[in-house]
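Checklist before submission:
- one chain only
- standard amino acids only
- sequence pasted in full

Submission:
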Amino acid sequence: MATTQENTARTPGLTFAPYLTREPVLLAGLFMLAVLLFLAVTGLSRMFHAQQDALGQRWFERGVTDFKAARYDSAVLEFRAALRYSRDNYLYQFNLAEALIGEKHMGEAYAYLIGLWDRQPEDGLVNRELARIAAQQGETEQALRYYHNAIYATWSQPGGADDEEAQRRETRLELIEFLLNLGAKTQAQSELIALAANTGNDSGQEAQIGELFLRAQDYEHALTAYRASLRVNRHDAAAQAGAGFAAFQLGQYEVAHRYLEAATLSDSNDSKSADLLKTTELVLQMDPFQRGISAVQRNNLVIKAFAIAGERLKACGSASPVAAAQGKQLSGAATGENSMTEGWTKLKPRISEAGLRQNPDRAEEAMDMVFNIERQTAASCGSPAGADLALILIAKRHEGN
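Returned file contents:
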């Protein structure tokens, strides 16, 4: 009887033991199922996002192709489609802004660009595009600020440091063009000096800087840049012509003659250099104050210059009916010309070889009259040419001496 009760008492324990061993297995199975479901969902999510990214990239590439072909309307639609699959993509937004600029939708382009600027204010490309928009809208201060930001900004270019430097150079060149178009020559000169400091030994870049310095009327730096270019490529006709023009403007006629002569030999169609060369030769030949000439040569040059000034006075006087049509301004000019005519006539008998030999100081008196005649007639009878122009340049050459 006792044995039976003992067996009965053990029966419940034997009944629940399988459940107790199956519960951990069940939990483990549920956990594994959850893990598998999580991995499946994660995989599906990744596949979905990868598909979205692929579709966005495909539309973006189509947009780039159309943008390069200047099909801006199509590019805008394709970049918008790309952004539907990747709304915050920085590159997609920037390219959409550029396409909108191509379509002349500046307001919308500006909205995208300013949003990108808020995210990355040091981005060179974004700053340059903002500068261009500001320049087109006449917002000079804003344009200058964005251009300077772009020059000193970060440039994300595949070519590394070389591409970054090239982009900075291109941006500074744009800024210089902007300043020159505004007539801000002093500011343009400052930017050009900074640009020239990072040029290296590139002949083409030096020649380009020389041309920009000419436009900024900084002839000293222009001549320096052209000389640097010619040290690398001494047969560059354009650089020779530029150097000659810069030297001419500086009154360095011996230097100008050398470069202009080389330019005309290199390019027979360069009529501008040929004309400047003729004027330069006249200045060098007609200057009575040049060094290394004898007293006889000097006196002959003074006599010749005095005669040329007299002819200019006569020609200017014969043009008075034309000038009379200009109104009251003629009266003062005509009075001055009459006074100079009287002075020239009175001095003429003493301007001879014998007269100058007896009184060498009279040569300076004669040349003072020549220079005054040429300046006065230039103001009242139009720009001089040939020997008359040469005499005015000789006068400028010796101002203050």
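Reviewer check: The chain is about 80% helix and 0% strand.
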